[in-house]
Amino acid sequence: MRRSLLGILFACIVMPGAVSAFGVDYSYTEYTTLGYDMPSQTLTQTVTVTGYSTGSCTHVCGPNNQQCTDPNCANATHVLTITNTLGAAGGDYTFNLPMFYNLNQSVAVSLYLPVGSPVLSGSQFTAATSRAKILCSFIGSIFFDTGFLSRYIEEAYTRFKYTLTIGPSPSGGVTVAVVTWCNAASTPPDWATSTIANIGTVYPFWDTIATCIRAPTTAPWSCWAPGTILGLPKIAGMDQPLATCTKNP
User: What is the secondary structure of 51-119 as a DSSP string?
Assistant: First the structure.
């Protein structure tokens, strides 16, 4: 089975602002991605915060309109805290920053996640979380993601059977129509689709793995296009057997 890394964009939070008394401007973006490495069956969640704090701690003061520097501003620091957890892995990560800076900080957390297994923390609580905040010693909180991005995650396996070729895919190959090919116990599977795009060689069957999320555990799974697609031939002219696909209620 070929190596597969699937990235998914889950959240983007932008926080612009300004502190005009000293000409301090800031802007931040926080986003979370997931990637799955099929050979090692390892899921990696990366939380990245980018942005900047620019400006000056001087202002006009005194009878001669001279430039004065505010020591509280000049000596101020920022503390960036990134929360990144996958099940029991990860936690809070803290970074100390000066008053003015350009920021591009990432934290990655990895977890062994066999195909078909959901990430559960032992109960109905969060399986994966991400959040970021920045606290300035001079002006207080300047960036805070008020709610955790929380979800349950699985790598879902589904076998599909080819029905017809629809036509060329925009990014190469062709798009084919398919039906799920799972046994009764795993039908309907968590990951299902009626088409698969970017197919180079058309096979009678495909084994696929897709990243799926949901919140809470009673919600249906939402899955992205498969990160792994393995074509399968017929066996001595016969159909492949119905597979045990991923089905987590």
Answer: EEEE--SEEEETTTTEEEE-HHHHT--EEEEEEEEETTEEEEEEEEE-SSEEEEEEEEEEEE--TT-B-
Residue 239: inside a domain, yes or no?
A: no
Same domain? 52 vs 35: yes
Q: Model's pTM, two decimal places?
A: 0.70
The per-residue pLDDT string of the chain (249 residues; one tens digit each, 9 = 90 and over) reads 222 233 333 333 344 444 434 567 888 888 888 887 777 888 888 999 999 888 888 888 878 888 888 888 888 889 999 999 887 889 999 999 998 899 999 999 998 888 877 765 444 345 778 888 998 887 788 887 655 567 788 888 999 999 999 999 888 899 999 999 999 999 999 999 999 998 899 999 999 988 888 877 778 888 887 777 889 999 988 999 999 999 987
Separation CA 107–CA 144 (nearest Å): 17
Range(s) of the domain holding residue 203: 153-232
3 within some domain: no
What whole-number distance in Å separates Cα of residue 66 and Cα of residue 50? 35
Instruction: Identify whether 95 is part of a domain.
Output: yes
The answer to the question of residue 247 being in a domain is no
